[in-house]
Amino acid sequence: MMTDPASAIKHEADPLIELQIRTLRRDSSLETTDLLDYSMRAERIKTLYQELDRITRSRFQLAPAS
Fold first, then answer.
1. What does the alpha-carbon distance between residue 43 and residue 62 come to, in Å, rounded to a whole number?
2. Is 31 helix (H, G, I), strand (E, B) or coil?
3. 28-44 per-position pLDDT tens digit
4. For residue 31, with 0-12 CB atoms within 10 Å meaning exposed, 13-18 middle and 19 or more buried, which class applies?
5. What is the DSSP letter of 64?
6. Are 20 and 43 in contact (CB under 8 A)?
């Protein structure tokens, strides 16, 4: 079974977003490594959503006008 690219992107982004939320909800202070990990995940999420935006825009451009 082949996965829709948009679904695959969402499937990858959702756990990253959940981890970002859990990181910010921590009672303890964030260490330098936590901040670096957070920053790297944020960049990955941004990249994934840019790709999702590109896919969505290309679908609208290919859709016939009503």
1. 29
2. coil
3. 999 999 999 999 999 99
4. exposed
5. P
6. no
Give counts: helices (H), strands (E), the chain.
2, 0
Residue in this structure with the two tokens 């959503």, named with its chain if needed = 49
State the amino acid at position 9 in one-letter form: I
One-letter amino acid at 43 equals E
Distance CA 55, CA 65 (A): 18
What secondary structure letter does DSSP report for 4?
A: P
Residue type, 23: T
3 state DSSP class of 30: coil
Global pTM exceeds 0.70: yes
CB 56 within 8 A of CB 6: yes
The total number of residues written for the chain in this structure: 66
- Report the distance separating Cα 13 and Cα 44, nearest Å: 8
Q: Rounded to an integer, what distance in angstroms lies between the CA atom of residue 44 and that of residue 51?
A: 11
